[in-house]
Each structure stands twice: as C-alpha cells, then as structure tokens.
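Weekly puzzle thread! Below is a chain. First person to post its structure in token form gets bragging rights.
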Amino acid sequence: MIDRLPPLTALRAFEAAARHMSFARAADELNVTPAALSFQIKSLEEHFGAPLFRRLNRAVELTEAGKALAPGTTDAFQMLQAAWRAAGRTVDTGVLTVTAGPAFTAKWLAPRLFDFAQSHPEIELRFAASLRLMDFERDDIDIAIRFGFGGDDGPNLYSEKIVGEWLTPMMHPDLAARFPTPESLLNAPLLHQDDIAWLRPACDWTAWFRANGLELGEIHGARFSQADHAIDAAQAGAGVVLGRITLTDRALRDRRLVAPFKTAISTDAHFRVLCPKGSEEKPQFKAFLEWLRVETCKMRDHGQGRHMVRADDIGG
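Winning reply:
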C-alpha cells in the first residue's frame, strides 16, 4: 500500500457499494454498469494492495480493511457535497430556501408568498415545512424560522426575534352571538392545541379562564396536534379556539374569525429567524429579513385595546 490517494471515481464506487452492500444497487445509484463499478473497485483494491470486499455467492461483505475505510469515505463525500452546495449558495442570489414549522408555513408564510414575489420578483422563495433541528449546510437551508424561548443559538448563527406571541379566544362570526361573555365560553365547544402544551407557564384554556377570574373545571372539547388544524376547525364553526395571533392574522382581517374578548395571554415564547452569521448581509437575505420585519409589524393593531396578561402572572 502507498500513501498516494487513489482516483476519486474509485473511492466513490467503493463508498456507494459499501453503503448499499450491493454492487448492483451502487451501480444504479451512480448510473454506471455493474461491470464498470466492479472494475473501479478492483482498481481500488489493487491500489490499496488488499481486498476491500469479500465476494460471496449473491452478496458482498466488507473485509476488515473495508470496514475501516467505509465510514471515512462516507463522511468525506457528505462533506464534499455540503461544501459544493455552500459554494453554490454564495453565487446564487436568486433562490432563498426557508424552513419553518408546518403551521407557520401554512398560515403565515404561504398566504404572503404572492406579496413577497410582487416586491422581489428577482428572488425565488422555497419553503421546507419542518420542526426538526436543521443543519444549514447538510439540509441546504438558508433561513430558519423557529418558535420558542430562544437562548444561546451559538456563535456561528445570526438570530433575530421577529414577533412575539399572544392568545385570545377566536371563533366564527356566527358563534360570537351565542357566546358573548367569558362566562358563556364555559359552555362552548372548546378546541385545544397540543402543539403548544410544552409552554411553561401554560398558555391554555385553563390559564385564560383564570385570567378572567373563572375556573374551567372539567376540560372538554376536541384536541388537535397542530394549531393550523384547530384554526381550520374554528373557521368552519366547529368551536372556539384559543387562537395564536401569529397564525390567525389573515383570518381575523378577512373576518373568517373574530376575537371579541379583551383578555389575551402573552408568553415569552416568540418567533425568531436564524441563518449562518454573515449571511444576513447578503442581498437576498436582507430583502427577506426586511420584508419579515414589515409584515410582522402589521399585526400590532390586533393588540390595540386588549388587556394583555402574562402567563407568568396567572395563578395556579
């Protein structure tokens, strides 16, 4: 064996075959014939000076040397792919990939996509609706919008709070006449959102009734794992939702929902925007961030005249 690295094509063939444990599947992935892939691996073994695979009847398995080589080659090719994508993003100013939770994507971002396109026709927005933790390089993501209490996002990330969150009862206009007071809501069909059950202090129906000097008693009503589904049910007249202002802004403006009560619960949890540090100065990033700031400011009028009660101040 010599220290000089073998050809990249031979290493690529080995990595694919080791990952699939199949020459045929590896050849299909690399769009070459099985014979061509086998030749590449054979040349790699000759370069190495020892077998990397054991050829069995209808299968292959790695030798000890192959097992030592496989993890490093997989990591190396993943790093190369990430570096290639990162380099591409430095010259591609026409595409911006944004990830946000499914509810925020459906109820806030998507309805405003046309507005952004009108203002910035030179930028193509792409959305990835997900709540999982993102790796900007690995997942090919430019900007992440996340809901939570924030904290230390690390020295390599730019982080900016874009909008706070508060909740108040919302319902179809036809239901508003049937439930004119906070007391009457005790008998209303209440809709619950389990996706914010992790908030501490809690921002739920029990907390809202306590903020009004009332006790809910037995909890009843339909439960939803996603806030956007609960909002859709409320718009259909199925019940009253403790609506999150960030997700109901358009529905309130269009009168598909009304929020007739003054009391609202505010939480320290908020939406923030994250991107690799330095990216916020790039033209397409700056345009999107400024657009976010303008659009979120428009929601402030919903809070005018309301009695905001911090979740921390509601007694248990």
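Puzzle host: Confirmed. Bonus trivia for everyone else. The chain has three domains: 8-91, 95-164+271-297, 166-266+301-313.
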